Amino acid sequence: MLLATSVAPAVWATTYLVTSELLPPDRPFLAGAIRALPAGLLLVAVTRQLPHGAWWWRSLVLGSLNIGGFFALLFVAAYRLPGGVASAVGALQPLIVALLAVVVLGQRLTARTLVAAVLGVVGVSLLVLRGETHLDAVGVVAAAGAAVSMSVGVILAKRWVSPASSLATTGWQLTAGGLVLLPLALVVEGLPSHLTSENVAGYAYLALVGSVLGYALWFRGLRALPPTDVTFLGLLNPVVATVLGWAVLDQRLTALQLLGGGIVLASLVLAQLRPRKAAPEGPEASGRPEEPRAAQASGAQGVAQRPQVAETPEEPDLTRRRDRASPS
After folding, report:
1. Mean pLDDT, residues 243-259 taken together
2. String of DSSP letters for 159-204
3. Where are the domains of the chain?
4. Packing angle between helix 111-128 and helix 93-100, nearest 10 degrees?
């Protein structure tokens, strides 16, 4: 389950490459709406399940936090900040989720989780930050808001257990998030005058692979696994994106980036470790079934009541022979 869930952030890492190479420029909100809304409607049509009762407004809340609000804030941060800064701020998400899980879900915050979260931030910073980085206050707030938005969405998605399948719930959230983004895209950006075949291919990839596949695996893993474990997998996103930039776009990798990638992977491994349980004592340790107490008691009584018969040597037959030999 953990391995399948890790495919989602790896797939999302290709978004940067697809956006820069295939999509029209200066249309981030439109890209988010097209990425979410058609994918959500497709999943709703396939599952043939609609929300019931409270799940109408819950789907809107979750879709706004995990999809609509997250995409909008993330794109604002991407436009006002260098990509490395936005990724570094986003690396705070595992720590935010771990703290929220304590308050909302009653989970215990361990030192291992804290150390892994700090290592994740350090590793991503080494991986993506450059020496001359100029910070924009609005961009930093937007990046932090995106991390908080998805963190709250992850916790609420774990707290509100949907009666429907995870695929149907994913469709509801994507549809709601797309409906939040669509008016923003139309008002702020407008529609492009024309689309090339490359643009269509890019949008189709983001909708089918990035959203249908990616979010279906993500929310399926979130339903089965602890939220902190799932959120740590998001640190794979900048790692895979950096590797793709090196492999496809011929970007140069430095020693600090390699070190940062190694620290991120160490953080992921540390976050998934679990303390070993103590070995059981008694019959369970040897693998033999324990004998019932009643049988043990009766067996002990039987041994105690069993008469002890003394073994004497066999009497010699001399007396019989003497009696036969003597006259009557």
Report:
1. 85
2. HS--SS-HHHHHHHHHHHHHHHHHHHHHHHT---S---HHHHHHHH
3. 2-272
4. 160
